[in-house]
Amino acid sequence: xxxxxxxxxxxxxGITSADTQTARGxxxxxxxxxxxxxxxxxxxxxxxxxxxRVIFENYTNSSECYGxxxxxxxxxxxxxxxxxxxxxxxxxxxxxxxxxxxxxxxASAGVDVIYATPTQMRLLSKSRYVLEKVQVVFIGGGQxxxxxxxxxxxxxxxxxILQFYGAAETSFxxxxxxxxxxxxxxxxxxxxxxxxxxxxxDGIGDVWVKSPYVFSGYAQGHASDTQxxxxxxxxxxxxxxxxxxQLLLSGRKSRVFTVADKTIYPEEIESYLNSYxxxxxxxxxxxxxxxxxxxxxxxxxxxxxxxxxxxxMLGDLxxxxxxxxxxxxxxxxxxxxLMSGKPNYQKLRATTSEDxxxxx
Length: 360
Hints:
Layout: E1 6-11, E2 14-21, E3 26-30, E4 40-44, H1 45-60, E5 65-68, H2 75-86, E6 90-93, H3 99-109, E7 113-116, H4 118-125, E8 136-139, H5 146-155, E9 160-167, E10 171-176, E11 187-188, E12 193-197, E13 205-210, E14 217-220, E15 227-229, E16 232-234, E17 237-241, E18 247-252, E19 257-259, E20 262-264, H6 266-274, E21 281-289, E22 293-301, H7 307-319, E23 324-330, H8 345-349, E24 358-359
Parallel strand pairs: 1-3, 5-6, 5-7, 7-8, 8-9, 22-23
Antiparallel strand pairs: 1-2, 3-4, 4-14, 9-10, 10-11, 12-13, 13-17, 15-16, 17-18, 19-20, 21-22, 23-24
């Protein structure tokens, strides 16, 4: 495809051609599809090569084998695979395997670098394996809470655990090392500028970035919150920067909703719930209510069968001013998850009329 001057498209259907004549080094990949149907984005090879150089120089110059837990149709997993190939490393994808099988294969292959989401790492940690050869774990696609960091450190005791924040459209925006505040996603990735605009009374505003790693535009689909202005890009993320330059995120504009005139940031609630030992993943979303504007529904991924214990945990949210209306527990094997490793909110919303949802 490249030799023919066409744009390769890497997505859920494997590798296809966009049948578009284009400049060499331009390709397409897909977003995670968290808020709806995955969008197809166009970017240049150089936009990824630039960050690969930074990662290699600072973290992976002695690596030999990358481990990937996500489907290559998602840009995070695909980026990791490309990074491994560019650096001349082996690359092992274990998508679709059980956590125990994944850990066994990582150990056998001598994986020393892992790219994954927090949920994927929490699941992998359930294997009870110890991956002594792993030197670096890059975690993106969600907040890395202290509990998960501890689990990952037990899984890979010799690894440097690095949280990064970014998106398919932006690639790396920030990187957090262990000494950074656990509530933040770290400081600006080398080469990235961050600007917070339209700041409200809580100090929260729109996150804008300028960097050499961003995409060129959407090839299919669109997002109303994605905007360009004089070389700066925003994808609708909300947050603030503290006095030390660390970015603290509140969530995506598209996910924020109101209950009885109170603004709800679902990502903050999910981060709180995920900090519990019994919770592998969580999903918070609204269901329309004519009186209050919306009701809060909470789905939990947990193998804990003690409903009273989980209900008590949700009751604790009341003290934080969050009034959960209904909740449901999914076992690890039935948790609706996208290929990106994030919750499938569309599938969860489609089940809200089922009896399995309990009133709190």
